[in-house]
């Protein structure tokens, strides 16, 4: 096992640095925490977690300089490898590992939350799938709704109430990507609010959103019980 020795390290890059530059086919160095390891035999996918999102790296037996058995989830690592285009990976690229240095290891194995795979899939899917937007009302639609509210002071409808809610949110676009960010920040109530709005807006995806809603509700209960 190779630990940090105090030697001068290569400049490390972030996900956005790689996306913005011409790094395909070039060797780069990246820091991160091991989020998930998928062992496929001679090849394994080691997904790193960074503040910008998830980064897929590829371990190859006989190519990467350490044994896969030395890695565990939640290790903090510095990895070096070649950037390769991969549309199925988060952000559309992956890193084929040459070197791995372990900075630190967790004191004990991290417990798996119930539904851990569900939230992982939710985060990874939101980084690879096209974003679903809940569009705010156009100005003329807002004016019409406001006019209707003034003439019906004693009988406001649910539709008017929903319009007012959208206005209160300063016309923000509610997206699955934003929900993903709230999940990473452990702001589960905000993520739940967004997913519920999307579920109402896109009834054909109700089954998909229902899974997210159930799990977020469990996360909220778990967080409140601590």
Commentary on this structure:
- Helix content is 38%, strand content 24%.
- With 226 residues, the protein is an alpha+beta fold.
- The chain has a five-stranded mixed β-barrel.
- A hairpin with a 7-residue loop joins strand 4 and strand 5.
- The longest helix has 19 residues.
- It is globular.
- The two termini are 36 Å apart.
β content, as a range? 15-25%
Class based on secondary structure composition and strand pairing: alpha+beta
Rounded to an integer in angstroms, the radius of gyration calculated over CA atoms is 22 Å
Question: Quaternary status of these chains?
Answer: single chain
Q: What is the H-and-E element order?
A: HEEEEEHEHHEHHH
Spatial strand sequence of the major β-sheet: 1-2-3-5-4
Q: Can you count the helices? A: 7
- What is the percent of helical residues? 25-40%
């Amino acid at each position: 096992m190779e630990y940090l020795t105090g030697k001068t390290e290569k400049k490390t890059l972030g996900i956005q640095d790689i996306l913005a530059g011409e790094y395909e086919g070039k060797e780069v160095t990246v820091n991160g925490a091991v989020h998930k390891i998928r062992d496929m035999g001679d090849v394994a996918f080691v997904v790193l977690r960074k503040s910008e999102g998830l980064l897929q790296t590829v371990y190859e037996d006989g190519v990467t300089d350490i044994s896969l058995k030395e890695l565990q989830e939640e290790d903090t690592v510095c990895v070096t490898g070649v950037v390769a285009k991969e549309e199925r990976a988060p952000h559309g690229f992956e890193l084929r590992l040459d070197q791995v240095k372990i900075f630190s290891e967790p004191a004990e194995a991290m417990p798996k939350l119930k539904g851990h795979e569900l939230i992982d899939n939710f985060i990874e899917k939101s980084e690879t799938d096209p974003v679903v937007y809940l569009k705010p009302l156009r100005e003329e639609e807002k004016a019409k709704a406001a006019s209707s509210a003034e003439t019906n002071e004693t009988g406001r409808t649910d539709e008017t109430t929903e319009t007012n809610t959208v206005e209160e949110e300063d016309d923000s676009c509610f997206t699955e990507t934003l929900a993903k960010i709230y999940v990473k920040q452990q702001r589960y109530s905000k993520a739940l609010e967004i997913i519920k709005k999307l579920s109402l807006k896109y009834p054909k995806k109700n089954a998909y959103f229902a899974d997210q809603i159930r799990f977020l509700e469990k996360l909220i209960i778990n967080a409140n019980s601590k």
